[in-house]
Specification:
single chain, alpha+beta, 2 domains, 5 strands, 32% helix
Length: 144
C-alpha cells in the first residue's frame, strides 16, 4: 500500500496535470488575436464622408453635348444618396447641366444609350466674388 508521502505526491501530480491541461496554448491565443483583427477589418464602418460642396446622386443622363473642347451632360436626379458638408440641397426630379471630364464621356454615353441610371459624385463650383450666382456643377467621379 502507498504511504502518506506517496499519496500527497500523487495528489499534487494530479493537480499539476489537471491545471496544465486546462490552460490554453500560446498558439490558440495568437490565433484568437489574429481572428479578432480580421473580424475588425470585415466590420462595416460608416461610409467615407464626402468633401464639402459635393453630393452623391443617382441620376439618368438625358443629353450629352460638347462646346469648345468641353463636354457637358444633362441629368435628371432620381435620388440623392448623401451630401458633403455645406452642399446646396438638391431636389429629386431636378435637372442639371454638368461639366464632364473627357475620360467619363464614353461611360455616360453608354448610360444615355441604355437609358440606365448612374450613381455619381458631383461638385458645386461656387461663383467668384462680385459675380452672379451660377448653377455650375461638374462630375467628380462615376461610382460603379
Amino acid at each position: 500500500m502507498l504511504n502518506l508521502k506517496q499519496l500527497i505526491f500523487l495528489f499534487f501530480l494530479a493537480i499539476l496535470i489537471l491545471l496544465t491541461s486546462c490552460s490554453s496554448s500560446k498558439n490558440e491565443v495568437a490565433e484568437k488575436k489574429k481572428d479578432d483583427k480580421v473580424n475588425l477589418l470585415k466590420k462595416d464602418f460608416a461610409p467615407i464622408p464626402l468633401a464639402p460642396g459635393t453630393a452623391e446622386v443617382k441620376s439618368l443622363v438625358t443629353n450629352i453635348f460638347g462646346n469648345n473642347d468641353k463636354y457637358f451632360c444633362k441629368i435628371k436626379v432620381n435620388e440623392v444618396k448623401q451630401y458633403g458638408p455645406s452642399t446646396k440641397p438638391i431636389a429629386v426630379g431636378s435637372e442639371f447641366e454638368l461639366e464632364i471630364p473627357d475620360k467619363m464621356v464614353e461611360r455616360l454615353d453608354n448610360s444615355l444609350l441604355n437609358k440606365s441610371e448612374v450613381v455619381m459624385t458631383i461638385s458645386y463650383l461656387p461663383s467668384g466674388v462680385g459675380q452672379a450666382d451660377s448653377n455650375s456643377w461638374r462630375i467628380i467621379k462615376i461610382n460603379d
